[in-house]
Amino acid sequence: MSDTLTKAISKDGFFKITAVVSTETVNQAQKLHQTAPTASAALGRLLTAGLMMADELKEESASLTLQLRGDGPLGILAAVADAKGGVKGYVAHPEADLPLKENGKLDVGTGVGKGFLSVIRDLKMKEPYIGQVPIQTGEIGDDLAYYFMQSEQVPSVVGLGVLVDRDYSISSAGGFLIQVMPGCDERSLTKLENSLQGLMSVTEMLSQGMNGEDIIKYLMLGFETEILKTVPVAYRCDCGRERMERAIVSLGRKEIQGIIDEQGEAEIVCQFCNKGYLFERDALCTMLERATRE
Ligand SMILES: [Zn+2]
Questions:
Q1: Contacts by 147-151 with C-beta closer than 8 Å and gap 24+?
Q2: Residue 89 Cα to ligand 1 middle (Å)
Q3: CA of 243 to the centre of ligand 1 (A)
Q4: Residues 99-126: what's their mean pLDDT?
Q5: What is the CATH topology of the domain spanning 241-293?
Q6: What's the fold here for domain 4-235?
Q7: CA 29–ligand 1 middle distance (angstroms)
Q8: 123 vs 294, more confident
Q9: 0.85 exceeded by the pTM?
Q10: What distance in angstroms lies between residue 46's CA and the mean position of ligand 1's atoms?
Q11: 224 Cα: distance to centroid of ligand 1 (angstroms)
Q12: Per-residue pLDDT tens for 18-33?
């Protein structure tokens, strides 16, 4: 079954709800980066959150980047999502794995550590919009809820879950985001809080075979909701030879000359999909000329 993003609003207009099933997306990331379980959970949660947040982008070519710069053993994590349901990401130390927490869950918080969460919205106009908050627990869902409140003044409930199988493949992954719209009254808020009491975890919901629509109905028990759309989502890398060439050209004349003299050729590996691009001497010389001119 392919991955999906489902969006809904409550009929009173007070809540906007997004649910994502991202099992295949996270499986793809696990295979590409050979992540150990803690890294799979951390990267999977970040990719899922990226998909939910990027869906808000209006511009076709716009992108949203979530970056975690913590001091934990996982190192830097990033997810880059577009408005068309594509997401890609990486973790600096995919091999990092930690002992399970006392409750038997993967210890993503310790893996991420303390530091900063950045949200970068590149709308392909002027400068990108960047918001940054200190990492709270490193569990990612909590950190995003904190970000929404601090940086965007939108009270939000964020749920993210990745269940890793014994063979390191991903049994299920997904998430939800409930955002409170301006003008929401106390009564509706209390009703939502009650509805969210004793909630199953996202992976439990998925293990029961729930799809995005089911998850939204389950979360918003007692509310009338309207499903606005369900769209496919997937792990997608948009790298290519031209993009890599631009990256080399941007290094500048001195750097490129250095590569030609010392190595004679250059191999660049995409950090999102590990695809390698080899540039031989001739190609590098052409780029050297371009760098001179630019
Ligand atoms: Zn790539």
A1: 147/117, 147/119, 148/179, 151/119
A2: 10
A3: 10
A4: 93
A5: CBS domain Like (3.90.1280)
A6: Hsp33 domain (3.55.30)
A7: 12
A8: 123
A9: yes
A10: 18
A11: 42
A12: 999 999 999 999 999 9
